[in-house]
Amino acid sequence: HGIAHERLAIMDPESGSQPLTSADGGVIVAANGEIYNYKELYDGLKVDYKPKTGSDCEVILPLYEEHGATIELPKKLRGMFSFILYDRKNDLFLIAR
Question: Could you give the count of Cα atoms lying within 13 Å of 47 in the half-sphere of its Cβ?
Fold first, then answer.
């Protein structure tokens, strides 16, 4: 499976291209909109995570690692957004808006 995405790049137009991928390439995210509380979410992570981009939507990757495909992940996000996440290992899609 794969995910393709076109977007208007406002947050980090230089390095925030999508889809976003986890370090091992096993999780893929394409998102649209804005996550207002992404800095606070990074600060609250249980494990240290260094973002590869300045995209506010990248925070979805470490949140997925912590919470998995549960309702807790999208409930933590504040903003106007939609995303699709694909977990290659588990052949699982998570879609939220």
Answer: 10
φ, ψ for residue 51 (rounded to 5)?
-60, 140
Cα–Cα distance between 9 and 37 in angstroms, integer?
18
CA atoms of 87 and 48, how far apart (whole Å): 21
On the 0-12 / 13-18 / 19+ scale of CB atoms within 10 A, 89 is: exposed
Question: What's the pLDDT at 18?
Answer: 81
Which amino acid, residue 15? S
* Type of residue found at 25: G
Q: pTM for this one?
A: 0.85
Task: Note whether 27 and 64 are within 8 A (CB).
Answer: yes
